[in-house]
């Protein structure tokens, strides 16, 4: 241990306290003397009907706290986002140099045709109004998203005490409205991209990850379909080995990757890599 501090103490000393994030904690027990802590809710199927029920126990995993589980507030997270709003345009920040901030916001790992991962943050250089910085999170009883468009001086936070809420779509709808576009307008337009019927067959099969995420790709009447979570969606080709589809109020990007022999070996979906298990879709 380089600092001779626990992870929790290091974060509190070097990040939370300098930024004045006094309502941000790893354990809700630290707020036991305060009465304005939210109650969590979750979706549960009862008697074949989806219902929203109280789920007051906060999920925690001490061994995984570096990957999440920090509890916070809108005001505290806005203070945190000032690092990237200020640093991205060259201004000093309380805990990082502007050069370090710019390095964090540099695309390092491609996620899809629009987004990449920097250092701990999703960055979208192609966003029509300037670089979009964002990150989301979800646990039982929680849906959250933070975002910033530094060039426009914008930061924002969405915190919902219910899981399964499409918070990123709320962010994109807000940004559309802010920049005088219809709230539901797609951010990106795609030129027609033709894939032959023979080429479509190359993608068919079942794909899965080690995190129990799975998807099936099948061709029907000259179109490619993906089945995920028991529902089927029509895929629209947008680039070589890349497709998008309409899933409720979002437009996910799905990308396929080839092995050394040029055969489809895996695909990306939902920020996960899925390995191809079979070349035949379920019949």
From TrEMBL:
What Pfam families does the record tag this protein with? Answer: Beta-lactamase
Q: Which SUPFAM superfamilies match?
A: beta-lactamase/transpeptidase-like
Superkingdom: Bacteria
All residue ranges annotated as the Beta-lactamase-related domain in the record = 2-164
Q: Mind telling me what this protein is named? A: Beta-lactamase-related domain-containing protein
Say which species the protein is native to.
Brevibacillus formosus
């Amino acid at each position: 241990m380089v600092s001779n501090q626990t992870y929790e103490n290091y974060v509190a000393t070097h990040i939370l306290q300098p930024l004045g994030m006094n309502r941000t904690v790893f354990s809700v027990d630290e707020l036991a003397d305060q009465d304005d802590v939210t109650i969590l809710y979750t979706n549960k199927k009862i008697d074949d009907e989806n219902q929203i029920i109280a789920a007051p126990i906060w999920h925690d995993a001490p061994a995984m706290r570096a990957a999440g589980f920090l509890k916070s507030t809108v005001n505290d997270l806005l203070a945190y986002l000032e690092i990237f709003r200020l640093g991205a345009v060259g201004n000093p920040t309380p805990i990082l140099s502007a050069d370090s901030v710019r390095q964090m916001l540099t695309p390092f790992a491609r996620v899809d045709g629009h987004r990449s991962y920097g250092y701990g943050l999703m960055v979208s250089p192609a966003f029509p109004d300037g670089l979009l910085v964002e990150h989301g999170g979800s646990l039982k009883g929680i849906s959250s998203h933070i975002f910033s468009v530094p060039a426009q001086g914008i930061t924002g936070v969405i915190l919902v005490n219910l899981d399964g809420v499409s918070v990123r779509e709320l962010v994109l709808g807000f940004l559309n409205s802010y920049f005088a576009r219809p709230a539901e307008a797609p951010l990106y337009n795609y030129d027609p991209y033709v894939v032959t019927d023979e080429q479509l067959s190359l993608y068919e099969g079942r794909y899965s990850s080690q995190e129990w995420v799975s998807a099936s790709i099948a061709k029907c009447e000259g179109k490619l379909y993906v089945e995920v979570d028991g529902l089927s969606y029509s895929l629209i080709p947008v680039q070589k080995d890349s497709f998008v589809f309409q899933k409720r109020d979002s437009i996910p990007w799905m990308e396929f990757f080839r092995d050394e022999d040029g055969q489809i070996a895996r695909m990306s979906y939902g920020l996960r890599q899925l390995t191809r298990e079979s070349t035949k879709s379920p019949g």
